[in-house]
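Lab notebook, bench 4. The sequencing result for the construct came back, and we need a structural model before the next group meeting so we can plan mutations. Quick request posted to the team channel:

Model the 3D structure of this chain.
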Amino acid sequence: MDITKAFASTFANENVIRAVVSTIAIILLGFYLRKRGTFGENFGKVLTKVVLAVALPALAFNSFMQGIDYTTFRQSMNVLIWGIVIYIILIFATKLLYFKYGRDKQDVLRVLTDFGSTTFFGIPIVAGIYGPTSRAVIYASVFNIGYRIFLYSYGYIKMSGLKMEIKNLKQMFLNPIVVATFAGLVLWLLQNENWIPHLSAIGADGKAVNVAFYRIDLTAPWISQPLVYLSGLASPLAWLGIGSTLGSISLGKAATDRDSWYYSFNKVVLVPLINVILLAILAVTNILPVSAEALETIIIMMATPTAAVASTYAIGFDRQAVLASNASLLSTVVATVLMPFWIIIAQVLSSTGIFH
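Done. Here's the predicted structure in token form:
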């Protein structure tokens, strides 16, 4: 497809433009309200807790309340595999990016580069573009499985210098988002009539359909509706929280740190670029092909700033705490600015025909 036409098609996509404008506008609103004093010092942290504990679990679970088909299942498995493989690749690749640094600073920068804010920053944007019950949110939730496995194992061990602890296994598997993702994934996979009792319900098109009894979106909409409302909170609350957090920290100090700028480039530009190149090779060779929608989701997830847990590790274990704070702030600003470009690039790549 002609690249010019691909760009024109992307800018004509109302969902993309709406999501980009909404993201930036609400982040700026959160920033303004924090600077003005409407939002208190801890408001961003409170919003973050609400999003992580309530809104995102509802979004993850609700995204699986749809029929299963072979294409979506196959893509989900490919995304799951890639979501594990890419972190193994990054663990070794980041060694090359920071080989000139001392051991302590190198370890911190590697972990911060490996793990982005896919949950708090990435998934709300995916949901904003494709909708909270779209296949893209399924792909995002499945992709995050590998992320959490490595974040709470490799990330913790690397930053603490200790062996894996039981409390981190609990964080890994009993986190509300992980529980909701696995619960939704299992229910989604078990919808076969031979395995699960089915009920007659009215589908979105107004026609009668037979669905698994736990498809509460159709069999018990009065139960599903609260989850729909909570899912809808994920994106705006996350963006307000990001803006409020940015408004609480001095950008001037972070902007003078050359290491933070180098890190931000690696995290927000190089990491998603590595994903694009490798996924293109895998698609062309048909080794691990992903669909256009899955590709767009992965690019958005990997073009995110520092993961809050990763920066918390650095601060909690006193591993380059100032650098981690500056890197987190600066990468969030850079990611906010560049995310619209990555969304456009993802849409254009989808139009090339490499990804089906």
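DSSP finds 16 helices and two strands in the chain.
Will bring this to the meeting.
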